[in-house]
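retry 2 of 3: previous attempt timed out while embedding 2-acetamido-2-deoxy-beta-D-glucopyranose. Reduced batch size to 1 and resubmitted. Inputs unchanged:
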Amino acid sequence: MDAITHLFVYSIFFSLFRISITQNSITPSQSIRDGGTTLVSADGSFQLGFFSPGNSNSRYVGIWYTVSSETVVWVANREASLSDHSGVLKVTDGGILVLLNSTSGVVWSSNTSRTVENPVAQLLDTGNLVLKDRNDDDPEKFLWQSFDYPCDTLLPEMKLGWNLVTGLERFLSSWKSTEDPAQGEYSVRIDLRGYPQSVSMEGDSIKTRPGSWNGLRFTGYPQLRPNPVFEYEFVLNEKEVYYEYKLHNTSVFSRLRVNPSGVPQRFNWVDRTQSWELFFTSHTIECDNYGLCGGYATCNTNKSPVCACLEGFLPKSPKNWDSVLDWSDGCVRRTPLECNGRDGFLKRTRLKLPDTSSSWYNKSMSLKECEGMCLKNCNCTAYTSLDVRGGGSGCVLWFGSLIDISEYSNSESGQDLYIRMATSELEHLEKKRRSAEIKLVAIIVSSALLFVGMTIVALVSCIWKKKLKTQGTTKISHGKEDMELPMFDLAAIANATDNFSNNKKLGEGGFGPVYKGKLPDGRDIAVKRLSKNSKQGLNELKNEVILIAKLQHRNLVKLLGCCIQENENMLIYEYMPNKSVDFFIFDQAKSKLLDWHKRINIIRGVAKGLLYLHEDSRLRIIHRDLKASNILLDNNMNAKISDFGLAKSFGGDQIDSETNRIIGTYGYMSPEYAVHGQYSIKSDVFSFGVLVLEILSGKKNRGFCHPNHHLNLLGHAWKLWIEDKPMELIDELVGNSCTLSSVLRHIHVGLLCVQQRPEDRPNMSSVVQMLTSESLLPKPKQPGFFIDSPTTDFSGKHGTSSANEISNTVFEAR
Ligand SMILES: *[C@@H]1O[C@H](CO)[C@@H](O)[C@H](O)[C@H]1NC(C)=O
Ligand SMILES: *[C@@H]1O[C@H](CO)[C@@H](O)[C@H](O)[C@H]1NC(C)=O
Ligand SMILES: *[C@@H]1O[C@H](CO)[C@@H](O)[C@H](O)[C@H]1NC(C)=O
Ligand SMILES: *[C@@H]1O[C@H](CO)[C@@H](O)[C@H](O)[C@H]1NC(C)=O
Ligand SMILES: *[C@@H]1O[C@H](CO)[C@@H](O)[C@H](O)[C@H]1NC(C)=O
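retry 2 succeeded.
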């Protein structure tokens, strides 16, 4: 009993004590001064007071988390800063919150259309600052609340959207910069045209489109799923349209913020580390760029090129579509609609639904009614269910062009869309589908027959060989394999290259000079004349070449054949008209031709080619000399890796015993390879990382110089990364064609690849996955070789930055 009394007294004492030092509200007789106290919400989570963002001297009134005072979630006077510490925040008798400066001028104020008897301004546990009557806690009766005027942060229980009765729009808008909370260029809002959708804007234009709500999530936001931290809902009725989330456990903080670069990011507070952890960051993939593919086309990040016309549609500007990779004109119908009841619909699945700004909806119609409704209106181009839950309900109709559709590979993410087509076009597509099916069946049947046939042949030849063996002869002919790889005649090659004339020389490749040639049939070829120091026998060489020829992938240069004759060993490749990546990225004028999309496409191409060499080909090839000049570009600027497979056959062992030389190129070599001659697939990953950073920055790693430090490109990138300004790495010539998060992801992956320890670097399958998804990435550690050159490890003198980088430079090792 005694103990309970004690406890009671203590708790009263404690709460009195608390009230005396912190308060969560002010009345007209009180005020908050700059440099004085702050308001603290009753549960202690949030505080309100004066602050200066970053290194700025301007003063603002804001609300922040008690655990993390630099995390400001709301700013009152974001457009009107105070220049000194004389600000005072007060509540007027009429129930208006005012911020006064030293001369009692009103710098900022809240507004209201009503007055109450006993006004107070109170900071609630949710982080909402409200003006209300002291005795009335009904949210409907608040005079004013900060949640109605969001800045860049959406807190739990805050509504993002519209009050349709008063016309109040609540939207997120970025800060101008980390030091200026004034409204910046970027906003996230709900677009009320047609069926309401969520959009992320830059000024007045849509940048990315999470899209319409399908009952479970926004159609373009498959990451939004039930999770242990928060639950969410989208409300759409006559009075309100908004998105909102609530915490499962209010002692776990989570916030959604649009950063000054316009990227929506969700952070969760981690108690253990006392820091915010990035839980989700938005639009990191190419297809998220609004309208990238134009009308009537789909975007698929896993395909190359990413854009494709819907079935039954053709590119509107075929020239731009195929060669310049400019898809913005979109596609047009192959067969016009007839609109006299003779149209039908093609069903597509797993899609992000198109822009709904010119759409119409009804929540209670069935899909069948929806179809009928669409057929009745000649301008209707597509329809689908409004809500996918429980087999689907409701109806959305689209009018006019279908814009910003993406294709998902995961069936859970996408939705069905019924696209209107002329009946004749539908019949045509159906016929095509049938014949493809028939072909497939034919292939299956014929391969089954072939299998049976081959089994018989194998059996027979087995018996035959046994018979031969017993007779003492084991000669097996190479004739069949030779047929797989065309052997070119030396005279023909000499002819095609004007007898290896200097005019035809394309460059000095890794293993000898390369010439351009033209075959009598008109085909352009590239001829690699291998240096003559190969000690291999003719048959061994042939076998190696045959193996290389078997490596076929769209991101590898295709080997057409070889010529092994009179002491000459030559490889004949397809000719790449656009030369190599270094030709573009390191040249002021030409690098403008490589915008962000093309650069991403090249990086992905190289990643996929390398993944094939490392893991998917039968041979497991380590390239050992991956670099910008070994990445060739085809007509459509797709990357093709060259010089693969040669290191093994033509480069000898990792350290050639006679010359003591290492194959590889300065600036691309991993530390363990350069220093100890150890190479593995992770050395290629290192070279890949260097290449990525070079493509992003337009600077060479080797020979990189900076006025302020002696680091090489890797060191420079790492420095910017840890100083939290990675964007400064990017080639200014890339222009505005890139999205911040995508850039950050590529820099991040580049840094992961060049980490000092091989075991820390990801393998190529992880790299490909990291580049094409939005998964969270591990933190990179310090890169290997971040000082200008590895010569310091050998000779003790600092390497001079000679920027000339002849292909396949080799260096002396002791
Ligand atoms: C205070 O604010 C008023 C009104 O905004 C303005 O006219 C006045 O110049 C300000 N005084 C100072 C010292 O900034
Ligand atoms: C309050 O101010 C905002 C912006 O200044 C204005 O749009 C809104 O109509 C005002 N509300 C009332 C109730 O006066
Ligand atoms: C909420 O989280 C806190 C701290 O992580 C934990 O102690 C508490 O048990 C949780 N409450 C509920 C209802 O899960
Ligand atoms: C929506 O469809 C239902 C059923 O067809 C109909 O009763 C209702 O009037 C429609 N609502 C609107 C706004 O058109
Ligand atoms: C179809 O669109 C045209 C042009 O936008 C418009 O004039 C016409 O009224 C529309 N027809 C229907 C049935 O909505």
